[in-house]
Structure formats: C-alpha cells, structure tokens
Amino acid sequence: MIKSPVIKAITATISALMIFSAVSVSANAASIDNNSKTLSKFQIKTSDNTKNDIPSAYSSVELGIVNSPKSQKYNDCWIYSSLSVLETKLLKKDFTANNFSAEHMNLWATTKSNGKGWQRNVTSDGYAFTALGYLSSWQGGIEQSDYDTLAEKYTPDKDLSAFVNYGATAIKYLDDCTQEEIKHEIMDNGSIYAAYSHSPYYENNDRTAYFCPQGSPKFTGHAIAIVGWDDNYSKENFKAINGVLPENDGAWLVKNSWGDYNTLNGYFWLSYEDSYLFSSTFKYNFAVEDVTEITDDVKLMQNEIYGATYEFNYINDDSVTYLNLFNFSEGYNKLDSVMFETTAKNSDYEIYYVPAENKIPVSDETKWTKLNSGKVPYCGYLNIDTNDFDLPVTYGAIAVKIKKNNESEKTTIGVGEWLNKSNGQFAFINESQKGESFIYQNGTMTDLLDWYKTERDDNLGGTFVIKAVTNKTELAVTLLGDIDLNNKIDIKDATDLQIAISGDSKLSAVQNLNADTDENGEINVNDVTQLQFMIANNN
Q1: At 75, is the secondary structure helix, strand, or coil?
Q2: Is 137 helix (H, G, I), strand (E, B) or coil?
Q3: Is the pLDDT of residue 419 over 70?
Q4: How confident is the model at residue 209 (pLDDT cuts 50, 70, 90)?
Q5: Listing from the earlier edge strand, what are the strands of the sheet with 419-420?
Q6: pLDDT exceeds cutoff 60 at 142
Q7: Cβ–Cβ under 8 Å, residues 63 and 191
Q8: Which among 57, 20, 31, 53 has a CA at the least distance from the CA of 42?
Q9: Helix, strand or coil, per DSSP, at residue 406
Q10: Which helix (H) or strand (E) is 446 found in, with range?
Q11: Contacts for 333 with CB less than 8 Å, ≥ 6 apart
Q12: In Å, what is the CA distance from 268 to each residue of 188, 238, 412?
C-alpha cells in the first residue's frame, strides 16, 4: 500500500496538550488555581480610531456574545475552543447556544466498535480537523442539557444529529490571512479558533499575558478562541524572555479553557508578535463563516461524517471532477446548496447535478445540469447556492469540478482519508465504501476506491467531502414496484425488495412507497409476490 504523505497531514494537526512532534508540558487543568476575580480589568471599549474600518480595540465579550470559559478535563482544548467559536457565531446571529457538550464531541471522536474513525480515547489528544469534521457534518453542537439525558447509553456508534439545532455551512481557514483580515473575521463572526505553542515559562506572573519570542523552541500545542484585540495593549505587560519583549504594543484577547484560573476570569492577552500563533506549525486556524438552523424540513446528505482529513492532490490535470452519489428519495428534493472542502483558493469551480444509471454517475456530460460556478474565495468549507434545484427522486450525483487558472495551479478537494502517526500507527481509519465517490477524467467515470487501488495500491482509499443541503418536498409514489428508482420495474426490483424484507438493506421513504405493491400500507412478502405478477404482466 502506498502511504499518503502523512507527515504533511499530521503537521496540519493540533492537539489539546500534545502535538506528535511536540514536548509535553503540564499546562493542564490540574495545575490551575481557582481565582475568582472581576472581568472588568480587561474590558475594552471599541475605539473610533480605525484602519480600513478596523477599530484599534474590540471585544466580543463586551458585546455579550461569548459564553464563560470552561475547564477542560483532558487533552481536549481543541474541543472547547471549537465549540466556543460555534457558540459565539450563533449568539452573534441571535440564535441560542447555551452550553454545547464537550463530552459528546470527545466521545464522538473516539474509535467506533468496528475499529473505524479516530484512533483515540477520551483522554487522548486531537486535531483541528477532528473538530472541523464534527462541525461541518452537523454532528454537533449538542446542548449539554440534551446530552445529559442520553449520555449513559451513548457510544460513538450512535447518531445524535437529531439533537443538533444548528449546523455550520461555511468554515474559512485563516492560516494565510493578514492581521487585518483576521480582525475582520473576529468582527464578522465573533471569534476564531487558533493555536500556539504553550509553556508556562512565557506567561507573566499573574498568567494574564503571554509572549513567546521568535526563535524560541516549540512546546505544547494549545488551542484557543480569540475573541478580540487591543492595539494599545502595552508590551510592558509581557514577561521579558532573556531581556526580550515584543517590539510593539498590541495583543489578542483570548478565551482559554482552563476555567477561572487567573485575575481575568480565564481570559488572557497574547502578543501579536508571538512566535507560533498563526504559523504553519499549527493548522488549521479557522472561522465559522455561516450557520443554518436545522429543522425537520432540512437534511444534510453526506457520505462521511469526519470531514476532510487530507487534500486529494494526486492528479495534476488542468481540471478534475469529483462526485458523490446520493439516494435522493427520502423526500428532500429541493437542493438548497452544495458544501465541499478545498484548499484550491482562487481556482475556478463548477457545480453539477449528474444523473446516475445503475447507481453510477453517467459520463455523458450533455446529461449533466450545471448548477453554479465561480472562483474559490478561500481555503476551507464552502457552501454554494444552487437555487432550489429540483432533484429527481432517484440516485444522482453532485459533482464539483475544480479548474486551474492564471491565479491558481491547484485542483484539490477535501477527502476523508486514513492517516498514520509518525510512529506508523493509525491516527484515523475511514469508513469508505464503493459507490459513494467517483472521479471523472477524460470521459471516464471511475469509482474512487477502484482509483485508490489501481493508482495508489491503497485498499482503504477515501471519501470526497461533498455534501448536499436539501429541503423537504412532498412524498409520493414515483412508480409502483420501482425499488431501485430507475423508472422501470424488472427482476432486480423484486430481488432488492426481498433483500430489504429480510433486513439486509434499508429502503428510503420513496422506495417504501414504491414497495407497497399491494397498496395495503405494509411491506411484506405479499408485496414481492405482487411485484413478480406485475413484472410477468409487463413481459
């Protein structure tokens, strides 16, 4: 098996208290005191002095859209920080976000009973893209009050997405952004997720200010939520390391996950000039750009729930078309938008609906329907409007074509692909299946798992991160007896119905309607007999 370039993948990770290549230090909740002081010592007023409409000081805390800092239990600051960023985004949009469950996210990100998923337990470290998968797949957040009623029986095999009220639809990576762009992101979204190298050596005496000078060794990776800034925060407040202070005033206002451990109630100031903040060492820093309310009328169609663990960068053609096949027969046939992950910033994209024959997307491009096109505006998870396209009630694919242009040479897309740690052990094992993802090249449609096996000698492969945000429509019989939804009835429909009745497969909502061939409201062996009569009469 040809290994993916996993070192590149792993360096895009962030743990709560340990990165694979980092030295562990004891900057955890156990070493924190419980000071209970007033927040007023760092409250800042929005300044009228602006640079490109950016105030010199800003605080989402002062705006009342940041929930109080919590205390992490394990190596899970990446959980607390990412949930805080989601909460703040929702509060900024006047949605409700009281207390999302870190416990649920932690357990969700542990190994499933079949050995798949993230290869970790609740006390293990984690990664930024673990959190990104949780948010982008609408697996959370779940209010702690809801989770408390389910926690006793919860395992990572169980789907609790029915308890998720809001889903992230667009997430922007900030690793190549300027300081001004990051400030705009904080103003627009309330906060951002970030990470830096932490050692108590670089804290000031009351643990309210932190500065690690350039050239310092890397220590523990620690994830945080940045909720504001002050350009005039004095550099004299930081601890001088070997006589070195920041060259300039200015610091980010940080919400930590160590409880009420200092005189700022769990917040601290982090110098603009910190050596590792926003560096390539700790990826991904991100902002939740948009969210949607999840109701019974909204369904996210997806073939994976862990998000992009890697970028599919194996093909160097001028354009590459990636597809995910879905069964659009659950009664959600208005396509509101298409979500996909990519780091091909400034490349061109085109979105298509592609019909399927025998559950394989057709290669005849004249049968494809173009839904939208444009230029990739940023690296991360995009959400592209599709103007309520009417999805046929059958199997069909959503295609994303990424094309090079004079601004970008990248045609990559996110993929849920297995990962190794530096010690050779698995960090993540995907649950990819044939018939989920496809690649279209030079007029040929290829199942992604076949492609991995042929081109990479890889039996695990991956699944493309392409999702469909759909809205509910009225359910109706499309063709009585048409179980495989190909607009005709034949012996294959009878076989599919027998398999479903035996319990070896599950029918969708529309397939159930089509399966009731004797129209008595029940699905049983009598419907198979009736379907066989119908097939015989057709012949």
Answers
A1: coil
A2: coil
A3: yes
A4: very high
A5: 117-118, 426-429, 419-420
A6: yes
A7: no
A8: 57
A9: coil
A10: strand 444-447
A11: 390, 391, 392, 393, 470, 473
A12: 21, 11, 38
Mean of the pLDDT values across residues 128-132?
A: 95
Asked if residue 264 lies in contact with residue 270, where contact means CB atoms within 8 angstroms, the answer is no
Which residue has tokens 């991904």? 284
Mean pLDDT in residue range 353-374: 97
SS3 of 458-520 = CCCCEEECEEEEEECCCCCCCCCCCCCCCCCCCHHHHHHHHHHHHCCCCCCHHHHHHHCCCCC
Count the neighbouring beta carbons within 10 Å of the beta carbon of residue 155: 10
Cα dihedral value 218, 219, 225, 231, nearest 10 = -50
- Of 532, 537, 533, 531, give the one whose Cα is nearest residue 514: 531
The amino acid occupying position 79 is: I
pTM for the predicted model, two decimal places: 0.88
243's tokens: 């006589």
pLDDT of residue 485: 92
Per cent of the chain over pLDDT 70 is 90
Which DSSP string do the residues of 303-366 spell out, in sequence order? S-SS--SEEE----SSEEEEEEEEE--SS--EEEEEEEEE--TT-EEEEEEEEEETTEE-S-GG
Nearest to 426 by CA among 131, 107, 3: 3
What is the amino acid identity at position 339? Answer: M
pLDDT at 17 over 60: no
| Residues paired with 326 in a beta bridge | 396
From residue 84, alpha-carbon distances to 141, 186, 224, 419, 453 in Å are 10, 13, 9, 27, 40
Least confident of 85-89, 232-236, 478-482: 478-482
Return the SS3 of 41.
Answer: helix
Ranges of beta strands (E only) in 25-148 are: 50-51, 54-55, 57-59, 117-118
Task: Report the mean per-residue pLDDT for the chain.
Answer: 90
Please report the pLDDT score of residue 538 as a whole number. 83
Q: What is the pLDDT of residues 455-482, one digit of tens each?
A: 999 999 999 999 999 999 988 899 999 9
pLDDT-derived band of residue 146, with 50, 70 and 90 as boundaries? very high
DSSP code string of 142-162: -BHHHHHTTGGG--TTS--GG
Strand partners, 373: 350
